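Lesson 9: reading folded outputs for more than one chain in a single document. The general rule is that every protein is listed as its sequence immediately followed by its structure tokens, and records are never interleaved. Here is the first one.
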Amino acid sequence: MSVSDVLNETKPKMESVIEDLGRKLANIRTGRATVGLLDSVSVDYYGTPTPLNQMASVAVPEPQLITVQPWDISQLGAVEKAIIAANLGLNPSNDGKIIRLPVPPLNEERRKQLAKQVHEIAEDHRVAIRNVRHSSNDALKKLLKEKLVSEDDERSGLEEVQKLTNSYVAKIDELAKNKEAEIMSV
């Protein structure tokens, strides 16, 4: 293993953290109904956690309404429970055949809560990037200890890992800032 191997392993790991951040931010609502709001909802389907979109039809008939129609009507209660448990700020109403989720317009307080949630998610992902940096640095130090690389190579490898870390943290900050601006705009 060499310094370039460590760097080549570091970049895809950091890239996957950015992809995960993108998925999580897409689930935060911005005041209009989208089927993506329910992507994170998992329903206990006969003892197996199943994504909602794999067991029900999810539609947006109006800009402020999401409808969920389970293919197995007996699972209506479980679907409703899962939506409530997902803590999306939506109150499902069940008429025995279909679940309606009115998406209320965001008030100032809810916008601030969502912005705070964006900050928390971004911070979790910054920590994940730092953890990748830490494991890469440990791998470089181990290579030095085993005398597989020189001190200069190890030092330049550590600097490269830090540059990668800085660039990915900047990407996280940019994504979070854009999402926050999207949430706060009326």
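And here is the second record, again sequence then tokens.
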Amino acid sequence: MTKSTMVKAHSGEIPRHNPCAQCGTPIAQPDWIEPGEGRVSYLWTCHACNYRFEAVAIFDEMPIAHPPLAA
């Protein structure tokens, strides 16, 4: 999946203006978004100080309803 596809898939949930973990400058949007089970990872790059860092959002897991294996 390309970066643009990944961003479009989560466009309603993208965090904006996250402060840089090193210098505090707001970053418009993450460079990369990687969803996983119960979490979403965001890769950020600060263009003011060139610092790169990852932030992870962890969600409460909801029970997954499994379809029957045989009818």
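What the second record shows: The first helix runs from residue 3 to 9.
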